[in-house]
Amino acid sequence: MKEDRLYYADPFRTEFSARVTGCEPDGDAWAVTLDATAFYPEGGGQPADAGVLGGARVLDVQERQGRVVHTTDRPLPVGSTVEGVIDWPRRLDHMEQHTGEHILSGTLHRLYGAENVGFHIGPDTVRMDMSLPLTDEQLAQAERQANEAVRRDLPVIASWPSPDKLAATEYRSKKALEGPVRLITVPETDCCACCGTHLTRSGQVGLIAIVSAQPYKGGVRLAVVCGGRAAAWAQRLAQQAHAVSGLLSAPADALTEAVQRQAAQAARLREQLAEARNAWFGLLARQVGEQDAPCLCLPDLAGDELRRCALALAARTERPCGVFSPGEGDTLHYALVWTGGDSAGLCREMNGAFAGRGGGRPPLAQGSLHGEFAAVQGWFAARCDESFNH
To answer: Which residue, 78, 86, 89, 98, is CA-closest to 58?
Structure first.
């Protein structure tokens, strides 16, 4: 006999009594069935409820072969009456996310014909996969209209229409359905087949926010927050905007222009730094003789700068040229150029001697190794002397 699913009659119910109809070992836990339950089982993109049942922690809730199965951390006596208590903050959060998703999905469908083809309530955001590519302007318009529906405080209606009424109703569904169908309707906003728990009025959602959007399988994948998550997200943004405003000495409503000015200034400084370092590399190269095998350790050089310096040195000699720059811990990043010899072979030997990794196309090799520069410099000098004395 199937249990009475109390979460359908009252999604705000947090406590109930029920009789234990089954309890079996399930790995390190126990699989418990009841004659009635307010625990929502995972399904339709919504995670399972959590809470306490007869003093046992409810670790998971799943539907198996038409029954709601509660995974608990201890057994419960079959035939006993137990009290269940739902983790209400978790349930409320899921209802806020799920109801907000309905409102936003319905709005996107109404405005642009986009279908929601994937949905999941994650720990931080709601994932929504829409079937069509959507511009930033389209998403902003949908977000505005979805929040208008929230502010109108519309009823959120759950119903089980008769087959005839269902056939005459236009509703969203990710797949063809058989048997009784439960519809969630927000007037003038959405009508969708859904088995989850929802709020009773749109105003209870509070706020819907699209956090990010990226192309996905010909459509767009959205990260969305609703309700309490959206309020916390907005508060974090405001705090960050206030902090950045102080750093840039600009009002919060003019941060974009301030950041653009900073970016332009940073780009000019990078160009000036590159020119200065090229001049520095040229001065270092002037000190290299035709028979020298220079091995230098220079601070704060990135990969491209190591390469440019090594190539500048190599223009003065056919012997190996190594340029190193310290990284984290004992890491040394390097660029190795040998125009007159086997740069790849020398790179492999050096990597082997100092637990390094890297390579490249002759005459250039780049990578990183581990060790003190003095030891690397001594090895490099000895290896170069050996090569040119034989």
So the answer is: 86
Question: Is the model's pLDDT at 390 over the cut of 60?
Answer: no
Q: Per the structure block, which two tokens stand in for 239?
A: 């705090």
Q: Give the mean model confidence (pLDDT) for residues 213-224.
A: 96
CATH numbers and ranges of domains, the chain: 4-86 (2.40.30.130), 92-239 (3.30.980.10), 284-389 (3.10.310.40)
Taking only the tens place, the pLDDT of each residue in 20-43 is 999 999 999 999 999 999 999 999
DSSP state of 155: B
pLDDT tens for each residue of 306-327: 999 999 999 999 999 999 999 9
The model's pTM: 0.77
Confidence at residue 32, expressed as pLDDT on a 0 to 100 scale: 97
Mean pLDDT, all residues of the chain: 94
Q: Which single residue is written with the structure tokens 């959405």?
A: 190
Exposed / middle / buried, residue 249 (Cβ in 10 Å: 0-12, 13-18, 19+): exposed
Q: Which candidate, 230, 43, 232, places its Cα nearest to that of 150? A: 230
- C-alpha–C-alpha distance, residues 250 and 268, integer Å: 21
User: In terms of pLDDT, which residue wins out, 358 or 177?
Assistant: 358
Could you report the per-residue pLDDT of 248-259, keeping only the tens digit for each? 888 877 888 888
From the centroid of its chain, how far is CA 378? 46
Element (H, E) at 364: strand 364-370
Cα separation of 36 and 19, whole Å?
A: 7
Task: Say what angle helices 88-112 and 136-151 make with each other, to 10 degrees.
Answer: 120
Cβ-based neighbour number of residue 242 at 10 Å: 10
Question: For residue 242, what is the enclosing H or E element?
Answer: helix 227-248
How far is 148 from 142, CA to CA, in rounded Å? Answer: 10
Q: DSSP string covering 52-113, please?
A: EETTEEEEEEEEETTEEEEEESS---TT-EEEEEE-HHHHHHHHHHHHHHHHHHHHHHHHH-
d(CA 191, CA 184): 6
Question: How far are the Cα atoms of 120, 176, 194 from residue 158, in angstroms, in the given order?
Answer: 20, 19, 9
Pair 326, 384: CB distance under 8 Å: no
- Under 8 Å CB-to-CB from 6, ≥6 apart: which residues? 13, 16, 36, 37, 38
